[in-house]
Design goal:
This protein is an alpha+beta fold. Helices cover 17% and strands 26% of the residues. The chain starts with a helix and ends in a 16-residue tail after the last strand.
Length: 129
């Protein structure tokens, strides 16, 4: 007889349960989503992490020469609401971005957003620069 984790969890005095099946499915989904868009022109989506029960995504982009946003201060970019550019990694330097910071070729940019299915760093702009 196969035991259902959900059935037995009701009777256990624990706060959280970890389902290996759900974790594996989520990792596969994240990998497929990030690989699906690897050849976009302006950046390469390298990783997708779903947070808050899938309501928020953390995206890792590698910035290429074709992004059209190189060297422009972040304050001058017309960014959509509902996103946060959390981190720029430039070589071994980790930058907590401010309005005067820029994205450069080779940077890794971490963005947290409520928008779904964004595949390129330029998808965060209200209109192209």
């Amino acid at each position: 007889s196969h035991l259902d984790l959900n059935e037995i969890s009701v009777s256990l005095p624990v706060g959280s349960l970890v389902s290996p099946k759900a974790i594996t499915a989520e990792y596969i989904s994240q990998y497929v989503r990030s690989q699906q868009y690897e050849n976009k022109a302006g950046s390469t989506l390298k990783a997708v992490y779903r947070l808050a029960e899938g309501q928020v995504e953390a995206l890792e982009f590698h910035i290429t020469e074709d992004s059209g946003m190189l060297g422009i201060p972040l304050a001058d970019l017309p960014m959509k609401s509902g996103l946060l550019l959390c981190c720029i990694v430039r070589g071994k330097q980790i930058i907590t971005p401010g309005g005067r910071d820029t994205m450069e070729k080779g940077d890794i940019v971490i963005v947290v957003t409520v928008h779904k299915n964004l595949t390129d760093i330029r998808d965060f702009l209200i209109h192209p620069v």
